[in-house]
Design goal:
Blueprint: H1 3-30, E1 33-34, E2 37-38, H2 51-75, H3 83-118
Antiparallel strand pairs: 1-2
Helix pairs in contact: 1-3, 2-3
Protein name: Group-specific protein
Transmembrane segments: 6-24, 45-71, 83-105
Keywords: Membrane, Transmembrane, Transmembrane helix
Length: 123
């Protein structure tokens, strides 16, 4: 692996550490669990914009910037041996994937919460 990949992995570990530092206390404070399962009727955080949503939006913007910089580097004739190309390739892939996964989980949790609160009465 090149130096760009190594630096990118270190940056990824640091950012994931920050995400966990935000997510774990939020999970313990705001998510109501009964018998080990989330009670979507009592948990209000899925129906509101929260800190984790803001963090994920920031990561999505960061991944867009990384992909645009990568596009510029490739347009200027750089190849995969360039450390910046390696860095932005890895960062763009990782944070795009994580942002899409979070979007799907967030939509799923929001729909489950809506169904638990209002049931099938919404049409």
């Amino acid at each position: 692996m090149g130096m760009g990949w190594m630096v990118s992995l270190i940056v990824t570990v640091v950012i994931i550490g920050l995400i966990m530092a935000v997510m774990l206390p939020m999970n313990q404070k705001y998510i109501v669990k009964e018998n080990g399962k989330i009670n979507y009727k009592k948990t209000k955080i899925f129906l509101r914009w929260n800190v984790f949503d803001t963090l994920t939006l920031g990561l999505a913007i960061y991944s867009i910037i990384c992909i645009q910089v990568l596009n510029m580097l490739i347009s200027f004739g750089e190849d995969r041996e360039n450390v910046y190309v390696q860095f932005f390739t890895n960062q763009g892939q990782v944070w795009t994937l994580i942002s899409v996964i979070y979007l799907l989980v967030r939509i799923s949790n929001t729909l489950k919460s809506i169904k638990a609160r209002w049931g099938d009465s919404i049409e």
